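Hello,

I think I submitted the 2-acetamido-2-deoxy-beta-D-glucopyranose job twice by accident. Can you confirm which output corresponds to this input? Input:
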Amino acid sequence: MLFPAVLGFLTCAVSLSSAAVTMENGMPMQWSKTVSQVTDFPSKDGVLTPNPWHLPHRMSFLRLMINATDPYMESMGPNATNSPVWGMPVLLGWLLTSGRLADPTIATTCGKEKGDPMCISPNSWWSCINYYSTALGFLSAAQKGFFGPGVQVQMQVPEGEVDYCTTYDDCAARFSDAVTAWDAFYQGLKDAKESSLPDAEKKDSLLGLYWTARTASILNATATCNSRLRHYSTREASFSKSWVDNVEYLAAVHYHSDLKTAEMFARPLPGRILKLSDRAPSILDMTKEENHSLYIFNWMDRINFMLGGSMVRLWRRAMCSVAAREKGREMMEQVLLNPAFATKTFISIITEMGVTC
Ligand SMILES: *[C@@H]1O[C@H](CO)[C@@H](O)[C@H](O)[C@H]1NC(C)=O
Ligand SMILES: *[C@@H]1O[C@H](CO)[C@@H](O)[C@H](O)[C@H]1NC(C)=O
Ligand SMILES: *[C@@H]1O[C@H](CO)[C@@H](O)[C@H](O)[C@H]1NC(C)=O
Ligand SMILES: *[C@@H]1O[C@H](CO)[C@@H](O)[C@H](O)[C@H]1NC(C)=O
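Support: Only one job matched these inputs. Its output is below.
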C-alpha cells in the first residue's frame, strides 16, 4: 500500500529544494507507523520475525530500543528525548527522504516514489550499512533481555540475499566486533543503574559505549557492504567514505546525539544522492548549509588523504579526556554548522589538543 503523505512529501522534496528533512510533526519520519511493543511484530512458532527491509519495521527497532533503554538513561537528562539512541531514527529518516534507502539500480522499484516507497533495498550501500546498526542493536537488546525474558528474533531476509545475518547467534558469529560492542553497551546500561558514579561520568562512559557500538557496526559492515558502492557516482561513493569518517569524529567526542542535536546535525546533510557533476560548495540546487557541509566533508577527506589517513587517528588521540571531548564537541558543531568557521584553525586546534592530555 502507498502512503499518500509520503508520496506528496517526496515529490515536493525533489521539485523544490533538496534540504534534508528527517522529521515530521516533531518525530522521526514514519514514527506513527512504528509498533509500540515487540509482540506487534509478526511471529512464527514463538519467534518474532520482523522485516528490516520494510521501513516502519526498521524504524520500530529504534523506537523499541529507545523505549526499553530509557529507564537506564537517567544520566542523559530528564527529558524523554535525551537518549543518544535518538540519533539513529533521525539518521534513518534522512536516508529515507534523501532517497538513499532506494534501489540504486534499475532492477527493482524498491524504495522509489513510483514503486514501494516504504521498501528498503538490500542493494543500497546505505541500507546495508544501516542494517548492521539497527538490526544488530535490536538483536543484542533482545538477547540481553531488554524486551523481556526469552524473546527470540529472526529477521526476515530478502529473497536471494545471503550476506545478511538474521539471528543473534548468526550475527555474533559473523560480525563479532559489532555484536560484542552492542552487548557491552547494554551491559553498561545495566551496570550504570547499579553504580554510584556521578551522572556526568556515567553519561560520558555510556556515550563512549554507545559510539563504540555504532562505529564497530559500521566498520564491521563495510567489508560486506562496499561492493554496493559500484552502483553510485564517484561523488556519492566518496561522500559515503567521508560520512563514515564523520561518524568516527563524532564517536571520538562521545557526541550526545539526543533528538534535538541529531536533527540539527542531520539538517545540512545532502537531501539527495550526489551526481558526478556535483561540486561543493557550488551545487546549485542545494541549500547554503548543504553546500557547506559537503565542502567540509570533502575538505576533511582531502586533509586525511594528505596526512596518509591519520587525521581520524590524530583526532581520536586528542579526545582523551572529558574536557577535551567537550572542546571537541564544540568544534564539530562549529566546523559542520558554521559556514564562517575557518578550516585551518581545525588542524591547529587538533595539534594543540594532542599535547594537553
Ligand atoms: C514504553 O512503551 C510502553 C508501551 O507503549 C509504555 O507504556 C511505556 O511508558 C514506555 N516506556 C518508556 C520508558 O518510554
Ligand atoms: C528538556 O526540555 C526542556 C523543555 O523543552 C528544555 O528547556 C531543556 O533544555 C531540556 N533539557 C535537556 C537536558 O535536554
Ligand atoms: C567483523 O569483525 C570480526 C572481528 O574482528 C571479524 O572476525 C569479522 O570477519 C568481521 N566481519 C566482516 C564481515 O568483516
Ligand atoms: C550553493 O552553492 C552555489 C554555488 O556557490 C550557489 O549558487 C547556491 O546558491 C548555493 N545554495 C545556497 C542556497 O546558498
